[in-house]
């Protein structure tokens, strides 16, 4: 079964219903709900998602959304090793470096993101939700 690290932008596509990307995110998360893929995210993605959604919704609504969302994903820790790998990497965007090394350290099969350009030197496949869905039909 595919182990996929889901980047924050994909989570927000789903939870904030950001069109036209929502449908692909929803289909991806429904694969997890039916146990066809395993979805993981980094702990910083949950924190970032909370922060961004709290700009759109009440804190109570955001917490309820995230509680339900947690059923679909496993959260991977961000430890000192991952922080150091990110700090010493050539990534321009530090948050992307942390996502990448979270995926590498936890042996993910792929990273799912809409930010492909910042992962161009990845040692594991990086694709959009749409690309993943098309390649697994």
Tell me the number of helical segments per DSSP (H or I, 4 or more residues long).
7
Q: Strand sequence of the main sheet, in spatial order?
A: 3-2-1-4-5
Question: Mean pLDDT score, rounded?
Answer: 95
Count of individual beta strands: 5
**Biggest β-sheet, characterized?**
5 strands, parallel
Q: How large is the share of residues in beta strands?
A: 5-15%
- Helix and strand run: EHHEHHEHHEEH
Unreliable runs: none
Overall, the morphology is globular
Based on CA atoms alone, the radius of gyration comes out at 14 Å
Secondary-structure class: alpha/beta
Q: Report the CATH topology name.
A: Rossmann fold
Structure description:
The protein is α/β, with parallel strands linked by helices and 137 residues long. Helices cover 50% and strands 15% of the residues. It has a single domain, classed as Rossmann fold (3-Layer(aba) Sandwich). The chain has helices at 8-15, 22-33, 43-53, 59-69, 80-87, 94-105, 129-135, and strands at residues 2-6, 37-42, 73-76, 110-112, 126-127. The longest helix has 12 residues, at 22-33.
Fill in the keyword field for this structure:
15% strand; alpha/beta; Rossmann fold; 137 residues; 50% helix
In short:
By secondary structure, the chain is of the alpha/beta class. 50% of the residues lie in helices and 15% in strands.
List the SSEs and their pairings.
Elements: E1 2-6, H1 8-15, H2 22-33, E2 37-42, H3 43-53, H4 59-69, E3 73-76, H5 80-87, H6 94-105, E4 110-112, E5 126-127, H7 129-135
Parallel strand pairs: 1-2, 1-4, 2-3, 4-5
């Amino acid at each position: 079964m595919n182990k996929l690290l889901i980047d924050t932008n994909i989570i927000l596509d789903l939870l904030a219903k950001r069109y036209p990307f929502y449908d692909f995110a929803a289909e991806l998360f429904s694969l997890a709900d039916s146990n066809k893929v395993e979805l993981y995210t980094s702990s910083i993605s949950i924190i970032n998602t909370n922060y961004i959604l709290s700009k759109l919704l009440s804190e109570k609504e955001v917490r309820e959304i995230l509680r339900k969302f947690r059923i679909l994903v496993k959260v991977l820790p961000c430890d000192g090793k991952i922080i150091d790998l990110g700090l010493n990497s050539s990534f321009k965007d530090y948050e992307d470096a942390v996502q990448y090394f979270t995926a590498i350290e936890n042996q993910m099969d792929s990273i799912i993101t809409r930010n492909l350009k910042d992962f161009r030197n990845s040692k594991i496949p990086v694709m959009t939700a749409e690309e993943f869905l098309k390649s697994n039909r």
